[in-house]
């Protein structure tokens, strides 16, 4: 993972050098993109490297390139997510939208134009990273069949993620009212596909794994990705803020249509609190009422059992001869940390 | 060019088939992306094919793939441009932002959420096309050196275009006040780089052209691209609306900081009309006053002469032994049409 950090830094350093020839605003844009990429957990690169190493892949340098490609794509999605949601803050500090917006406001530029400036910066930064992510994959020094197989994985990852993101927004703006199965599909598409399934499959392909092993890793990734996101949804409502650093009212204030909420909606309990859900000014006490309702109606227990089921099934998917024992055991250990998160 | 149209249609048809498995909204997104790509002039694909054929390239099928990659990238930039500018209409009909926004408003969804829905659709559609554009290039069946050379061209094209777009917006929101040279740089970066220079260079590389020929075509593309955009700026202010189908008040109402305006700003004439420039409610009579000022101060004549100079220099750049005579003559003819546009 040291190599991944090093390569991410060298990628941004190279672009920053070039950007200096195109004016200070463009340099600023690349600095902001670099900061947006810093400090992440590097989950996706880690999965690429674990899969590649676990199938005894021998091309460590190419694996790092592939790992970095996934991280750039992830940063791009975060940047565009913030534009879509109109957020100006991420992890407590101004994001690219917020940073450029603040800069414009300091220059006494009108609010509408300051917003446009912030939006522009984040859209362009994301566009650049989507492009460069794919460029890194295209440049891999591998045989044509491997390259095409990797491109297929990336194509599918991006295609499915966009479907999931569109569905997520369609629920939150109210274009679609999700049933529980819709919310679960959305979770799988928006998170599991590009964050778990694709990095594992891609790492294994690069490492020369056979079809059966790739299929098993994909299945594990899909299931674990759903468990991970469901666990995240639980933490976002019932977590210990001091421990996780994650707000436990934001999801309720935003009216995030998670499977947790979809389950609750189908119960009588929800009707009594529905008017609170999605209120931007939700008080701590009102948030408690929503949490109680989610507990009483069985939604919390249901999602907790879903997490456990998905983790169990994910681990079971690894139990085929084609998956090397060392890799299976490593991924089983990783799956355990997801349960810990959720409880 | 028939092959290009056919391939663009088959690309979107393939994605539409897949999208059908991910819900009607996602199908709708791909239909909208396909419509956004339809009806363009296919300038960039044409330049790829002209350059490839002109250097006696023999791989027509790969040239079509490369040509389509440039067109998808162009569509992506248009889609994101509209989000950046907050436009809901393009060529007189609702664009993707507008179409999705209208759909939400019809369902009685609040204005802020309808805007979010429109913005989301256009951002995701653009993201998908940026990704797939690069995926097509990555999949080309060419030797590694050629692939890397093409990827370098695309990387630079996207990098420089983003710099130009950022500069353009920085002028229109007022973060930067452009001097004439800044406005000319912006024109070269935002339009010439990916619309003229990159397609010509890429087509020539794929066709196996030598370094000197590629250099000459790049120079021609850069100069002609600037001439083309300057001509477009002139048409956008002085054109015959009935003939061009292009509004001659929009640029003045938006306060578009073109080189035409940058030149005028440095003259005394402009101070008398500066308060009119950028007024969203500019009347036809006020637009006439702005036009008169642009004529009187010499800005129009200056930009017209710039166009002529750039076209002449572009054609002169082709006058090297490395550029095949047939290609030079074809590109000279094409350059002539740019002069026609501007006058």
Automatic annotation (TrEMBL), chains A, B:
Molecular function GO labels: metal ion binding; prenyltransferase activity
Q: Which GO terms describe its biological process?
A: isoprenoid biosynthetic process
Question: What is this protein's record name?
Answer: Polyprenyl synthetase family protein
Q: Which family does it belong to?
A: Belongs to the FPP/GGPP synthase family.
Write the record's keywords in alphabetical order, separated by commas: Magnesium, Metal-binding, Transferase
The record ties this protein, via Gene3D superfamilies, to: Farnesyl Diphosphate Synthase
Q: Which domain of life is it from?
A: Bacteria
Checking InterPro entries in the record gives: Isoprenoid_synthase_dom_sf (IPR008949), Polyprenyl_synt (IPR000092), Polyprenyl_synt_CS (IPR033749)
Q: Per the entry, which co-factors are needed?
A: Mg(2+)
